[in-house]
Design a protein that fits this description.
The protein has 271 residues and is an alpha+beta fold. It contains 6 helices and 9 strands; from the N terminus they run αβααααβββββαβββ. The strands form 2 sheets. Strands 1, 2, 3, 4, 5 and 6 form a 6-stranded antiparallel beta sheet that branches. Strands 8-7-9 form a 3-stranded antiparallel beta sheet. It is flat, with a radius of gyration of 27 Å. Bound molecules: zinc ion. The site of zinc ion has 8 residues, from loops.
């Protein structure tokens, strides 16, 4: 339903003071830019660029020294496990705003967008701190998750010389969660019905194959450039890397070359 009429007007009036303010907490990187964190990040993302880890290679680069991957920007100020377990800072206006939404039933929260821009590369020994501003709050919107409001924040990252090194915008939806569907009872006396199997996600790369199944055909994908057949359906030819394909119907006769029996893990609810 969402808030309506006078109630909604009164609530939106309370939101106004939050637009354009800083959230009241400066996030200060606990460590200077350092090789260990860079290495862990690169290993986690399988980034093997030598300018992040090899001093000799970095010296030969335009940077002249080791630099941090720009996409690590936010990692330097994240408070770690305190994010999950810490008590909310009473000065945090962003949390206060979220509690205001909670108080009128918009208890759901989901992150929807983020953008980042990097002004300069961070080097070993740099220090980063950040300030976040609540940039805007949308009108009430009806979304697939429920009725709610989008909140946009902008976090500006600065170095010790107070120069901007990058920024990040972040959008969350605070929404009123929809009614949860009740467990469906079957005819045998109140026990929940067996779950329905999840359908495959359909798209450009596989819908044609399932359409074939629905029409009673077993289609085999064929590369339009080199003619090699492949199955199951996938976007690119493993032989020539072409993404152009058509298909031919299988005659339905053949011999099984190999198969797999999956024992565990079973998916709960399915036999
Ligand atoms: Zn091919």
């Amino acid at each position: 339903m969402g808030l309506q009429g006078k109630e909604r007007e009164a609530f939106e009036k309370k939101l106004e003071p939050y637009v354009g303010i800083e959230i009241g907490i400066e996030e200060i990187g606990r460590d200077e830019i350092n090789q260990s964190m860079i290495r862990h990040w690169c290993e986690a993302l399988d980034n093997r660029l030598p300018i992040y880890r090899d001093p000799d290679a970095a010296a030969q680069s335009v940077h002249g020294e080791i630099v941090a991957p720009p996409t690590m920007l936010q990692a330097w100020i994240l408070p770690g496990m305190a994010m999950a377990t810490g008590d909310p800072d009473p000065n945090d206006k962003q949390k206060e705003l979220h509690r205001l939404f909670d108080s009128v039933g918009y208890t759901g929260v989901v992150a929807t967008n983020t953008e980042q821009e990097y002004v300069r590369y961070l080097k070993l020994g740099d220090r980063v701190r950040a300030v976040t501003e609540i940039e805007s709050i949308s009108e009430q919107k009806a979304t697939g998750l429920g009725i709610g409001y989008f909140i946009d924040t902008r976090t500006t990252f600065r170095d010790d010389a107070d120069e901007v090194v990058g920024w990040m915008t972040f959008r969350v939806l605070k929404f009123e969660p929809g009614e949860q569907p009740e467990a469906v009872a079957d005819d045998s006396g109140g026990a929940p019905a067996k779950p329905v199997r999840i359908r495959p996600a359909l798209g450009h790369d596989n819908q044609w194959w399932w359409d074939g199944v629905a029409a009673g055909h077993f289609l085999i994908q064929r590369c339009e450039d080199c003619g090699v057949l492949r199955h199951p359906p996938r976007p690119m030819c493993g032989e020539c890397q072409s993404v152009r394909f058509d298909s031919i119907p299988s005659a339905g006769a053949g011999s099984v070359y190999s198969y797999v029996v999956i024992h565990y893990p079973e998916v709960p609810g399915y036999e």
